[in-house]
Amino acid sequence: MSRPVIVVVAAGPGVSGSVARRFAREGYDVALLGVDEEQLLTLAGELEGLGVAVGHAVADITDVAATSAAIRRFGEHTERIDVLHFNPSAFREKDPLELSVPELLEDVALGVGGLLTAVQAARPFMSAGGRVTATGSLAADKPWHRAASLGVQKAGLRNLVRSLDAALKEDGIRAVSVTVRGTLGQDERFTPDRVGEAIWDAAHQDEADWRTEVPYPV
């Protein structure tokens, strides 16, 4: 396969869909992984309309075996993965006095552990110039106490991205998280398409000045 390939983890109608469309417009073939097949099929149809090849798989991101197998199938089919975009997080409206340890661990397994699973599965198909991108959040720095697990997820995600970048950079693969410093829909800056554009830019930043975290808006 000659065209570059992006794998979008937790694909759906929001930011992840905008990321998929942004890369597709640049000629990337797209592999979609998510839990809602109807949403995946809708997005796949939109992407095919842009003239790229699209594959999709339904999997629970917290299911390590299923997620790993799906990403390996994508890589074996395309023979390359150039960008892995990680989008999921769990929103659970419970404060720290209500949140149980099992609930916290369940949410972290999705919002942080899923990235570990995805990168480990994708790594054999990535080469120099490959990129790992992740949708971060201001919750990492300013958590809302009524959704305590979200702040833990986003802080952990950012930390893991930094570790992944350090582990991968000698092979020419870089990792970056984009910290969305606001709420989607609050104004014209915070549309999924604007955030998708920021993720595109972060993936294509100058490697000589690489940042593992990019705030949006700057």
TrEMBL record:
Keywords: Oxidoreductase. This is SDR family oxidoreductase. The keyword Oxidoreductase applies. The keyword Iron-sulfur does not apply. It holds the Pfam family adh_short. Belongs to the short-chain dehydrogenases/reductases (SDR) family.
